[in-house]
Amino acid sequence: MKRRILNLTAVVLTALVVLPLFTRPAGVQAAEQDQKPPYTIPEYNAYQAANAEKDPAAKIKLLDDFVAKFPNSTLLQYVYLQYYQTYQAMKNYAKAIEYADKLVALGDKADPTQVLTALQARVQAFSAMRMSPTAPDANDQLTKQRDAALQGAKLLEAFPKPASVKASDEDFAKQKKPGIAFFDSSAGAAALQLKDYPGAVSAFKAALANDPGNAVSSYQLGLAYLAMSPAQTLDGFWALARAINLKVQDADKVKDYLKQKLLVYEQPGCDNQADAQLGELLQLAANSPDRPSSYSIPSADDLNKIRQSSNIITVISDLQGGGDKTKMTWLALCGAEFPEVVGKVVDEQKTDTTIDFLVYTGATPEDMQAATMPNMDVKVFLGATPPAAAPAGGTQAAPIPPQPDVVRLSKDDGIRFSGTLVSFDPSPFLLHWEQVKVDPTVIPEAPGKGKGVPKKKG
């Protein structure tokens, strides 16, 4: 599945956080109180004319005239506000960003509320603009977006409670959380596109600390974890599972993507084993935003070590043990092919096309000779062989030719075969084999003339 970064939904900061936007300069209050305002009457009149204009093109012309006549006016913060709001309404997001940045660049010369609101507008305009990742200045644009978003998060975090707000300090801090999360998630999205994966992880984690139910932030956090070098795989899986539980957009596709990542990371013996692990992961992640340190998934290296150190005796012992040992053993060996297995036929179940030999295998010939109960089910085709079935989600194998002569094997005869492990029953324990090929040298020449428990070749 081709991955893409989901667009951020525009978030409006709570009214208690961002004070009402100024439509007239604060200095007007001083003029009304017979105090000298920090601007001239021509400046004020030119600003008000632009502010009152409803036609966007005409408004922009009036604002241009103002800046040309009064380049150092104390009213510039309000002029820039009119600029970026007008350009945003016109969907000219590049120009909206330009003038929001001009307002922010005024620094201490602008009211902190105006700076915060401009940062919000700038971040939203960038998300709406859908910048091309191949643009020559893409890196520069993304860097500015990330830095502006981080600045907004920092400013809003420190934003003091206005005297007019009656909410408690605790409630006011809670009301700021969605706005802070908006800025942090925007910073994370930009960092992700910049391939600054540690920065993206930090930003998305900060966003989720203030807005833990945000599916997009959780999804993007998962992508950032998986893209790191080295990848933080388990944390990435957990964040993606969390996003699926939170009903992220295209959740089914994200689920398929997560399953494929699980398969690549683990490389289990049978592909369908990832389904059970995915179900377990989704269930656990639904109840916890953070991955517990105790949760793990074995890697391909872990499973390869089991494959390299196993023989049929250790496999049976480990599968009978239960717990994590059994789980990891079967993850490694489901679908595995064994070139030579020996045992004693304890019983058989025959149909028109197959015969199931119920076989016991043990560590020594004496152990096998004494056995009365099977620990393996060995299925052999006698006649027309159907297309080979894939072992429990594994890769389809080539069909084994029919072996009608195996009917001469009977109870207490020895058997030697190669085959593929397809499943097992935990209690009573029975290991199931398919794609079986019996060594013809152990098949009796005549009915009833068994050859005993065969010894391993070599």
Task: Give an overview in words.
- With 458 residues, the chain is of the alpha+beta class.
- The protein has two domains: 27-285, Tetratricopeptide repeat domain (Serine Threonine Protein Phosphatase 5, Tetratricopeptide repeat), CATH 1.25.40; 334-442, OB fold (Dihydrolipoamide Acetyltransferase, E2P) (Beta Barrel), CATH 2.40.50.
- Helix content is 50%, strand content 11%.
- It has helices spanning 27-32, 41-52, 56-69, 76-89, 93-105, 112-129, 138-158, 169-193, 197-210, 215-227, 233-245, 251-266, 273-285, 300-309, 312-321, 323-333, 365-370, and strands spanning 337-350, 354-360, 376-381, 414-426, 429-438.
- The protein starts with 26 loop residues before the first helix and ends in a 20-residue tail after the last strand.
Strand fraction band? 5-15%
Number of domains: 2
Sequence of secondary-structure elements? HHHHHHHHHHHHHHHHEEHEEE
Helix content: 40-55%
Shape: rod-shaped
- Provide the low-confidence segments as ranges: 1-24, 26-33
Q: The biggest beta sheet, please?
A: 5 strands, mixed, barrel
Report the radius of gyration as a whole number of Å. 35 Å
Determine the CATH topology of the largest domain: Serine Threonine Protein Phosphatase 5, Tetratricopeptide repeat
Lateral arrangement of strands in the main beta sheet? 1-2-3-5-4
Q: Structural class, judged by helices and strands?
A: alpha+beta
Kindly, what is the distance between the CA atoms of the first and last residues, rounded to a whole number of angstroms?
48 Å
The average pLDDT score comes to 88
Number of strands: 5
- CATH architecture name of the largest domain: Alpha Horseshoe
